Amino acid sequence: MTTTSDATTITSEAGTPAGLRTAGSTTGLSRADRATREEILYYCRESVRTGLNFNTQGNISVRLPGAHDGADAIVITPSDVRYDAMSGDDMVVVGLDGTVLEGDLLPSTELPVHLEHYRRRPDVQAIVHTESTFVNVLGALGRRIDPVLLNMVLYAKGPVEVMPFEFSTNADFGRRSAELMGDDVDAVVWGNHGLLAVGTSLKLAFKVAVAVEENAEVLLRASAAGTPKVLVYADIDVPEGARLP
Questions:
Q1: Apex CA 215: angle with CA 211 and CA 219, to 5°?
Q2: Which residues are tagged catalytic?
Q3: What residue spans define the domains of the chain?
Q4: Is residue 15 packed enough to be buried (19+ CB in 10 Å), middle (13-18) or exposed (0-12)?
Q5: Closest to 59 measured CA to CA, from 112, 129, 135, 136
Q6: Which candidate, 204, 201, 164, 156, places its Cα nearest to that of 182?
Q7: pLDDT in tens, 148-173
Q8: Which fold has domain 2-234?
Q9: Alpha helix stretches (DSSP H) within the chain
Q10: Which three-class secondary structure state does DSSP give residue 171?
Q11: Nearest Cα to Cα of residue 126 among 41, 62, 34
Q12: pTM (two decimals)
């Protein structure tokens, strides 16, 4: 049985309805360990606490290398569940081919977008989508978010481009989002619809999301006062052995 709400077909294993728990469930041996599920839950709640998300907006996923018969899978937040009511067991495990492997709930409606970013960027191990306020201000204006803060240039690694608005729950959108982000920058703005940030770990992907939102606010305020100095990642001389803030 399949659900086809977007261009990527979501299929469950063994012919069971998508969203029903299957082999490898968290009641037994799971492809996503407890620590990974709890880390996702922690950052979901942090996204609300820090004002990056509200209600049931946003979503988070983490890559699970080799978890689907040797191929990669991801574990992603479920659709339409408030973070304060969510548990680690609510996370949904999905193969990169769209097969639902574990979970009682439907995966995030933006699953196809996450999958396209993972397919394009093997280095990406986690994705965070937020509805950050100042990111959305600049996104609604169609204005690229240039780095004016050190954290932004260190974590996002460059200017964050803005996609024109369109509905974001299909694979075609995901491919365009991944193409616009490219291979060297770690975030992209969806016009009128927030930010998608990536990282080599969930901790780093979340830092990207925080850094871009802080930068967006400073950029907006600085632009109202004058012409802000834009930083260029390639021009930053990071001393050998220095740790990121």
A1: 175
A2: 110
A3: 2-234
A4: exposed
A5: 129
A6: 156
A7: 999 999 999 999 999 999 888 899 99
A8: L-fuculose-1-phosphate Aldolase (3.40.225)
A9: 34-49, 111-120, 133-141, 150-155, 171-181, 202-225
A10: helix
A11: 62
A12: 0.88
